[in-house]
Amino acid sequence: MNTKLIHSKVNAILKTIVPIELPINIEELAKKRGLDVLPYDLGQDVSGLLAIKDGKGTIGYNITDASVRRRFTIAHELGHYELHKEKSDLFVDQQFIYRRQNSPLSFELKEMENEANYFASCILMPTDQVRKALEIMDINLVTEDGIKELAKLFDVSTTAMSLRVNKLGFF
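Predicted structure:
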């Protein structure tokens, strides 16, 4: 995974927000990057998609998903747009792929999915803002309540927040 490229892209996008307010308005950010963002009923197994035609991207998110999932999906598809738009003109986020042990995804596709997930976590939960929140709010990350409080501030799932603070080394 090219974490330097991901951090560079995320930081460039976040610099367009002054001041950064939480939670990050990911839909507005995607629109500022030239993407359309539209709700769809995509069924149970599809959280979102990114379609690119003539360089113009459209993110579709599943209106039936929880709001924190929709936000992550938009950020994930924005990640595909920023990182992988030269590699494909269609990205579909199918939840069932991750539930199957012997996924048919190639290594390259799995890597692109991991990169888009990492991009999403970095843009929704920027390192500096997570650090500041932990300092100001005096949150105990060892407790479930602490993770819930932090997740609520960033409007993400507790799972996403747990993974992010773990990746940042705050545990």
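Summary: The chain has two domains: 3-124, 125-171.
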